[in-house]
Amino acid sequence: MTRAQIIATRLALLALVLGAWELLPRLGAINALLLPPLSQVLTTLVELLGRASVQEAVTVTALEVIVAFVIAVPLGALAGILIAENDYLSEIFKPMLFYVFSIPKSIFLPMFILVFGIGFQQKVAYAAFTTGFVVLMSATAAVESVKPDHILVARSYGATQAQILWRVYVPSMLPFLLETMRISMIFNFTGVMIAEMYASRTGIGHLIANWGENFQMPQLFAGVIVLSAVAIIFNEAVRALEARCSTWRT
Amino acid sequence: MQHLANVTELKARLEAPAIEVEGLSHVYAGPDGGVKALLDIRLAVGKGRFVVIVGPSGCGKTSLLMMLAGLLQPSQGTISCLGRPMPKPDPQRVGVIFQEASLFPWLTTLDNIEFPLSLRGMPREERRRRSAAMLGLVGLEGFGERYPHELSGGMKQRVSIARGLVQDPPLLLMDEPFAALDEQTRMTMGHELLRIWSTTEKTVVFITHSLTEAVYLADEVLVMSARPGRIIDHIQVTLPRPRSYEMMATEVFGQLRERIWQQIRRAP
Amino acid sequence: MSRPAPATVRWMLLAVLLVLWEVVPMTGLLPELFLPACSKTLSVLYGDRHIYGAALLVTLYEVACSMLIACGLGILAGALVGGTALLRDLLLPVFSSLYAVPIVILYPIFTAWFGVGSSSKIAFAGIYGFFPVMLSTAAGIRTIDPQFLLAARSMGATLSQQITRVIIPASVPTVFAGLRLGGALTIIGVVVSEMLTASAGIGYLVTLNRTILDSPRVFAGILAILVLSIAYYMLARALESRMVVWQSAGRQQQSSAGVSTAAVPAPAAA
Asked: What's the complex ipTM?
């Protein structure tokens, strides 16, 4: 299929899904209380975005996401680079990482609540905690992706440590780093959402959990749509950036 | 424009040729009329002969082999192997050995060798008997229960050859089977192949890039031009059999190599 | 002076952690509320073992059911989408874009639709595991060497023989990776959903005890989940290495990198 045909087919499928979302509840095939028609969800969405309380929640969530990210990335990256660079540490910690990834980190959320209470710090701490591990693992992989051959060539031409760092490591790792940022942000966002839905009085996650509990389905769906849209847009934007920077990547 | 190869020497033989190809052309579908892979190929291979095909990359020799194997149908022309066409693969008539051994990693060596037999539903004892015999023929006794990942490149190719031989097809097609091996292993394997071939009476069509390999192994060398591939020369290798490594140092050997090289270089 | 073996260091670290877990609360460095002593946690776990046992059964039941969805459907869908060029070009990018959405925000929808019992957890965890397993299987299917099929055809294999004797055996490592991934993700999904809104299960116990500030019981629940997920991981790896003994040498481990260029995601950090 050509590119145009693919896009056309996808749009057709999307139209089908959206059409079903609109028609099936209206026709009564699906209980409209459980799945409100798309138009109703969209009008609710517009109305919600205008509300001050919703805007406040968005701000809180955004702040948490950013702060957690800013904390997690340097720490995780540092740890990841340390582990990758030091063979001994590598051998010790790398096998542990798989175990760590199998554990549901949400199980530690009560611990964070016991320590920080319910509030901004707790959510940020938890999100940073979960994101940190992802960043660590990605950083390790990124450092290891730099081909030893390249380093050898640079050294044989007399490059200094700093030059090797800037002229070999950084360009080689750049696409990887972008991908790391993108995937870490996905996990970061998830972490913040879980924390907000679990025990919080502010933030979008809390609002969504609330709407769910109170069976306010149009609002719930509206919130889900907005969040999904934001997540997808961010993801695709970074992906486009990655593609620009990594034309040479195999 | 080079003339087609002269194949009159085969008319002297009384038997029908093992392989006959007439007027074969092939075009791969694609934009701008597609890719002309082969142009008006005409050849005949006598029974029991070891024929080597050489040519530059992309000249269509692999496509030609695939058609002889029944894996591909030509756009034009006819193929007959042992007097019958090849509409689809017929492993009891034509055995195929590829450059990649493609041994199934989840099967042991013996299981790999008898795979074609098990496809036909042959009973287990019979299969074992035959595959064990093949294992011995290629010199790998004792390795029957190993898995492919435990074998070296040369050993894997031997297993691949054993697999191609297990149904005792009169015709054997080999597409650069030793290309992925190092030089020394290649020479050993070539020698081994000639040994195996001399104990059977198979007809072999062998593709290679290596001129040395071509002269060392072949009774006849067919030289193909660059794409679209045509046969531009047909060289008889009159070196005595069994071949030996020392022959590689003789003048005759060098002249044959030189002739092939000239043909390949000059071909438009 | 030689360094201790890495494995030894890991065990030492574990031992140190356990000791700290016991000593630090006892000396009062951290309040009992934040970190109850290891011995206290264990004794509470033992004392309430019937409660925890029942909760564990509920959790395991939900994990099993959602694994059926996540792995069963995920592997099938992944094989289909990954194996068919048309579906792959059409759908795979769409699915990997959807991966960016935190699935957890869908959970309130499921509780509204299915209630607070096991069904909502199973639905949620099933979907949570479905996408990564599907993406992983789709990627794995493509690593099957096309030369295998060529060789099989040249040996006269019929289409059904090509599928049963070549494609299926060649897919075994991918399927096992999918099972391991799916199990890990469904455990995470079930735990998260039980913690959020539930009436039974270990996650529910953890939340319940947190709200009444019963730290030892909270930690007992955490410990139970830790043991469960690590046990699953070890079981899955052991099974995988036994079944797939022949793939040891050549192939790259699909799980080695947390980030990869194909859309194969790491188990989620939920």
From this structure: 0.86
